[in-house]
Predict the 3D structure of the following.
Amino acid sequence: MIKVKRAYEEATEADGARILVDRLWPRGLATGSARIELWMKDLAPSHELRRWFGHSPERWQEFKARYRRELIESGGTARLQELAQRAKSETITLVFAAKDETYNNAQALKELIETIQANPDLS
């Protein structure tokens, strides 16, 4: 199972493995209270793509397409496959810092991982 959760929300046992998918550590968040098991900076969008997107709902579909291209070009799909495999047997929570809980890189990653789970040959 794959969940998505803001870094500033309380960590719970139901989160399973908490994986931070942002390039920068969340501002003001203590490392101990975050309960981050793994920090996958390499899965975060580039600074340029993040700035271009700006959490604009109108740019969401294009952001996801560009983000996927970035992941493919950087070799990130192997990491996504690892997460897809892991999520088959345990709960993973993709942790992000953005205020927007709907349009963010963790949501986009969740969709990509679920697509890989449903169609392993697409990755």
